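Quick question: what would this complex look like in 3D?
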Amino acid sequence: MTGARQPLGIGDVRRHHLSVVLGELVDRGPRSRAALAQRTGLTKATVSALVADLLDRGLVEELATPPAGRVGRPAIDVAASAGHVAGLGLAVDVDHVAAGVVDLTGRVRVLHRRPSDNRAARLGTVLDRLRRVAARALGDAEAEGMACVGGALSLPGLVDPAGTLLVAPNLGWTAIAGDDLVARLGLPAGIAVTLDNEANLAARAELRFGAGRDLSSFVHVSAGVGIGAGVVLDGRLVRGAHGFAGELGHVVVDRTGRPCACGSRGCLETIAGSAADASSDAVAAALAAALRSVVQIIDPQAILLGGSLAGRGDDFAAAVGDRLQGAALSARWPCDVRPARLGPDAALIGAASVALDAVVADPTLVPRRSPADRTA
Amino acid sequence: MTGARQPLGIGDVRRHHLSVVLGELVDRGPRSRAALAQRTGLTKATVSALVADLLDRGLVEELATPPAGRVGRPAIDVAASAGHVAGLGLAVDVDHVAAGVVDLTGRVRVLHRRPSDNRAARLGTVLDRLRRVAARALGDAEAEGMACVGGALSLPGLVDPAGTLLVAPNLGWTAIAGDDLVARLGLPAGIAVTLDNEANLAARAELRFGAGRDLSSFVHVSAGVGIGAGVVLDGRLVRGAHGFAGELGHVVVDRTGRPCACGSRGCLETIAGSAADASSDAVAAALAAALRSVVQIIDPQAILLGGSLAGRGDDFAAAVGDRLQGAALSARWPCDVRPARLGPDAALIGAASVALDAVVADPTLVPRRSPADRTA
């Protein structure tokens, strides 16, 4: 067993408690200090001190006094702040570049998307396009008084655990170190951006803000020309040893089928990818066949159909679910199949949430503000 | 996102530190207090106090003074104790019942296995057989001065997250609550036993004591009449939402193949299960096809071939690995395929380790011994 055991120091405990309180507010919405104390098991005095710390960092805010009608001193609710700290989401896909700014409550506050054929363009040209939309997004965020603390760049390719893009076949990009790529975007110092796979980031967004919010395990299918998936188990994204977990598009559903660009035959992508232009029924049948393997191997609570599949609606999801239940083992304990919720910007939201998750895990990443700032 | 965030109290921190120290000794073998301090980042004084506590609970022991030859006071090594606390492993399979006792270092100290055709027998008869081997194993352990703190019962079937056996097709057992089943074994009070799936427990044993010891992610294939698998990610077993993760035997590898008992066609089990009596080449090809889906979906570091597959040796594992790499995506980042290490008693060892893992996670589960006991 690989040991990740580490002792805890006093600072760790305080960080952990700050994270507990901020996480409650982000996950479950505004509530009073007393309710926070009850929910977390911390004393009211401890919660008050932690909230004061989080206020000082601009991570939470006090909501206006609730309407009168209750006797006694009104409880003031505390909420995750939508006003100060934000995450930056960047995306390059085959047909567009985009940059967005997402606040701690998951709202997309700024979005710039520029259609462009990135398959035909040189790397430098694509990065120039991305640099321009990123600069505009950051400018808009600043104008609204928001500070981006970091983020991620979504790419339609395989990213290894060290953050290197191994290959993005549809862009023709191979072996690019994340740091090198990000350096060419000319982002302001202090905004750390990592690379990640589009399907992983979309799943992450659905987990935090979308259809996966109340699930601890699901597979989010992200369909377009290619078909990727984000695998979430125990509330965490599974990346795989080499970074290519979730390559659902290359699960073989028909050994005698069409050749796939990957070198195999009858991969899901050759039938259900948008380029295959197959009938809805054929797509549902191929998806169900590939998802049967998913269910047998990891038995998730639900399958979320995202990307272009989300637009096919509830009836299509139900059709896939019916075919999946035709498999005997899963018939008895069905796996729920439903559309994803966040639409085409899921990966961008997920990219921004990388930074937001880091802040929730360790609120001390955001410095305390000076007294002058606080009165502003 | 489902929140498992909890605040930490002082007792939690101490428990955590005890767990850190005991875990180091169990995972990495004997070492001095100074080495433990260096490795864990705790002060030497803290480590000494924690070791004293663990000595008092009989969980660690001091090794004899190392041979002379070094100047100064010799460092005394501390080791996980093989002498006091143990886990009880129980197993029912189609052709035998077994009970074993495993110490904190992973050694099987007692093993009683009784061949019997459990397919033809009534539930009560099978439980009587198990009760007898369990009583003998516990008697032998007591004679050696060891106390079993708990364990698990390995079954060839699906066990849900609440510990209920949903179905064990080859035994003809369905819907048995774990507590009811265990109550019929007449175990002494204080020995808590839960039910688990054979493939899960075998994977758990390989993770803690076998071929998975240095891996954080792997899939352990447990082959016999049926084919199950244990999926380990981030050093933890993946159970699935309904308890049937790892049902590798029912991944379809040939849509037009033989009907399977599960109601589908061409499941891996119909080709590579021992009842199919297929050639080694056909088994390797079918395994590789099913494992390709595993690799695409979760991208583990390695595949461990256990059960009857382990006996086929390194050449067979290499043949499966070669066929798996034939799939283009994994060719570039190959997944290691190798035989498992613990042999036919892997599930029994895993069953015992359920209790040992609980003790490592929280050493305070084992009470401090009275002064009289300590001098004994």
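Answer marked as accepted. Chain B has a mean pLDDT of 89.
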